[in-house]
Amino acid sequence: MTKSSDGVFFLTGKDFTNAGSASSNLKGILDDMGIPADIVRRAAIAAFEAEMNAIIYAVAGMMRYSITPEAVTVTLQDMGPGIPDIDLAMKEGYSTAPDYIREMGFGSGMGLPNIKKNTDKLTINSVVGEGTTLEFVIYLQGLSPETSG
Ligand SMILES: Nc1ncnc2c1ncn2[C@@H]1O[C@H](COP(=O)(O)OP(=O)(O)OP(=O)(O)O)[C@@H](O)[C@H]1O
Ligand SMILES: [Mg+2]
After folding, report:
1. Residue ID of nearest Cα to ligand 1 atom 29
2. How does DSSP assign 20-82, residue by residue?
3. Where are the domains of the chain?
4. Whole-prediction pTM value?
5. pLDDT digits (tens, 9 = 90+) for 66-105
6. Quick one: which of 26, 34, 44 has its CA closest to 149?
7. Can you tell me where the transmembrane regions are (predicted)?
8. Fewest C-beta in 10 Å: which of 53, 95, 103, 112?
């Protein structure tokens, strides 16, 4: 089994044709590495929500991942517009999604709360006019003897 892996996926704002492919690729990588199914499920949910936010709200961005025997760390960095009030954005049901996004099935205001729920550590930094960096960590150690090397 591969012990560590890292990489990056590039994301284009409003590119709904490829939306979800970065998180889906990441899920495949985690599966191939033999990461426990529950960890893969949590990482895939969190990565998908973060990827969709970057695609829906930002101009462009990237998803970096780092998988070690200790943890899965995923960082979404985008190029704006930024989040003016992160505490408000974290609230269940809060959404600024426009109608055409809601018609696609997004905009319930559940993405960020879902990321929080499925991860062990979540950090969001945002500067209006510059962009947002969201990083989450899911710990592996202690959960799977074969990965706690
Ligand atoms: N990367 C981002 N850049 C700018 N604003 C963001 C970003 N991510 C989230 N937001 C803001 O935070 C709000 C809440 O995000 P969240 O993902 O929780 O819900 P949503 O995207 O509106 O709906 P859902 O995720 O349920 O489809 C968004 O409506 C948006 O205003
Ligand atoms: Mg969302």
Report:
1. 95
2. THHHHHHHHHHHHTT--HHHHHHHHHHHHHHHHHHHHH-SEEEEEEEE-SSEEEEEEEE-S--
3. 5-143
4. 0.95
5. 999 999 999 999 999 999 999 999 999 999 999 999 999 9
6. 34
7. none
8. 103
Where residue 31 falls (left for φ over 0; alpha for ψ -120 to 50; beta otherwise) is: alpha
Structure confidence by residue, pLDDT tens digits, 100-128 = 999 999 999 999 999 999 999 999 999 99
| Ligand 1 pocket test, candidate residues 90, 92, 95, most atoms within 8 A of CB | 95
Note the CATH number of domain 5-143.
3.30.565.10
Please write the tens of the pLDDT for every residue from 23-63: 999 999 999 999 999 999 999 999 999 999 999 999 999 99
